[in-house]
Amino acid sequence: MVTATAELADLQPKLEAKHKINKLRKLLDELSEDYERIYLDTPPALNFYAVSALIASDRVLIPFDCDSFSRQALYGLMREIEELKEDHNEDLQVEGIIVNQFQPRASLPQQMLDELIAEGLPVLPVYLGASVKMRESHQASLPLIHLDPRHKLTQQFVDLHHLLETNAHP
């Protein structure tokens, strides 16, 4: 017997969402006939949209800022991905962890990355640095490559793109 408690009320929207959670996957399955790759950018919160995207995806890229809060969030997300694999999408794989806001002169970020790599997590070898150029790009509503094609951060994104294309799965 499941009694009518506050926990049950909290469960209702989750159960209702399960019927809609696969809609994105069905849509992307149709689109995949016309496209080699489809990238979905989701908000950082693990909400309905992010979960729908994970269920619909073959692979996931995880951005990671080198700090303890991001590290805890990363571990939580990895657990959630394992649960989603069991319940909804057994083919989902973590393609890699994208290091973001990297500060090469600081020792803590490198130490943290070394630890993640030692744990066997798939940290990609291209690190995206911290730069005000990204904020300027957002402010101008202009892709970074158009705002400043020769900027160091732009080149890091180009390098990341080349890495992903080189490692792309058919």
Write the layout of secondary structure elements.
Blueprint: H1 6-20, H2 23-31, H3 48-56, E1 59-65, H4 68-87, E2 93-102, H5 107-118, E3 123-129, H6 132-140, H7 144-147, H8 152-166
Parallel strand pairs: 1-2, 2-3
Strand tally: 3
Q: Give the low-pLDDT segments.
A: none
Q: How many domains make up the 3D coordinates? A: 2
Helix content: 40-55%
Give the overall form: globular
Sequence of strands across the biggest β-sheet? 1-2-3
Give the overall pLDDT as a whole number: 88
Number of helical segments with 4 or more residues: 8
CATH class descriptor of the largest domain: Alpha Beta
Describe this entry's structure for a reader.
- Helix 5 links the parallel strand 2 and strand 3.
- This protein folds into 2 domains: 13-130, P-loop containing nucleotide triphosphate hydrolases (Rossmann fold, 3-Layer(aba) Sandwich); 132-170, no CATH class.
- With 170 residues, the chain is α/β, with parallel strands linked by helices.
- Helix content is 55%, strand content 14%.
- The protein is built from 8 helices and 3 strands; from the N terminus they run αααβαβαβααα.
- It starts with 5 loop residues before the first helix and ends with a helix.
- InterPro entries: AAA_dom, DNA_Partitioning_ATPase, P-loop_NTPase.
Short characterization:
Keywords: Coiled coil. Pfam families: AAA_31 (PF13614). By secondary structure, the protein is an alpha/beta fold.
